[in-house]
Amino acid sequence: MYCSIRLTQPSLPGLLLSKETAMRRGEIAAMQWRNVNLRTNVLWVPDSKSGDLRRVPLSSRALAVLTPLPRRVDGQVWGIRADSITQAFERACRRAHIDDLGFHDLRHKATSRFFEIGLNSVQVAAITGHKTLQMLQRYTHLRAEELAKLLG
Fold this sequence. Notes:
Blueprint (H helix, E strand, L loop, with lengths): L12 H9 L3 H5 L6 E2 L4 E4 L8 E4 L2 H7 L15 H14 L9 H12 L4 H8 L4 H6 L5 H8 L1
Antiparallel strand pairs: 1-2, 2-3
Helix pairs in contact: 1-3, 1-5
């Protein structure tokens, strides 16, 4: 599914981070400050779905989301459970009259956007953590309009 939602509201930092990193909701919910390096612009995801450590590069927009956040005593970035992210997203979609859109669709959108800005398959897979080209292709929904821009 292609997601055309624009995520620009500053009140939605977790959604913006998802759009910038293609992280899963569980990975976002589990984020710890000790795994965020604001000097090198890298976030470590120690327990990804595949069980492997993943190093996620942080764009300037992702850094703009994370930098102003207060540091929690428990070390968590968000202090929220993964299912709470889903519930909040579903409520926001209902209020905005958006049907048939799930939080995981943001991962698809981010993956497609990485290709649209010119990253190659190896680079995108390094960011998203996809192990095979076949799985990466399942997450990629390129828009002809964006491909036309790349062609010049």
